[in-house]
Amino acid sequence: MVDTLAFLASQGTGILLPALLAAVLSYFCGCFNGAVIVSKYILRNDVRTHGSGNAGLTNFYRTFGGPLTFVVILCDVLKAVVAIQLSVWLAGQLLMLEDAAAQQATRALFEYWAGTFCLLGHMFPCMFGFKGGKGILSGGTIAIMIDWRVALVVWGGFLVLAVLTRYVSLGSCWAGASFPFATWFVYHDVLLTILAVFLGGLILWKHRGNIRRLLQGNESKFTLHKKKEGSQ
After folding, report:
1. What is the pTM of this model?
2. Which reaction does it catalyse (predicted)?
3. Which of 55, 25, 43, 73 lies closest to 128, judged by CA?
């Protein structure tokens, strides 16, 4: 695959329009927060007023449970898929590259680029007061869309830690921290790794409260039963 920095240099200012459009499109896809939409407009009980105050899958399940949890899952997965697929397609249509290596570089670059802005939209949705989720399910979907090897590292560690310890946050921290390393292992590309550091760093930053509670030994463990109001 062509080095993405070299690819950017070869495209010059021609890359700016597809990059801008992909960023805007992906951000607004990310803003489609399933936990907020379902709780606020269907259940009429905003999930952000319960438990940890987080607009994510774990807090939604702990607060409400039930089959609507699957709607939240579907929203968080589909928006990442749509953001990445549309961004890659858009870049291909606007750049119209014929070289196979350049096409491969374009796809990889726009997958990471779109994934980053989708995650920003999920975490900081402009239509919901910039108060969103922590990005694990959407981030995990982004990893799957990017490369199965990256997804294997991210999801494998997440599942092992979450199942063995019942700390979802510990598995989430692994996902964020391992993402740049998995990216470098697969691509050996500086720009993609920088984007992966930013993407993984967002997840870790959103989990800073969980990290503090893990270190203090008072982090909540995951249970299949709904938690009582006020749990963290």
Report:
1. 0.89
2. an acyl phosphate + sn-glycerol 3-phosphate = a 1-acyl-sn-glycero-3-phosphate + phosphate
3. 55
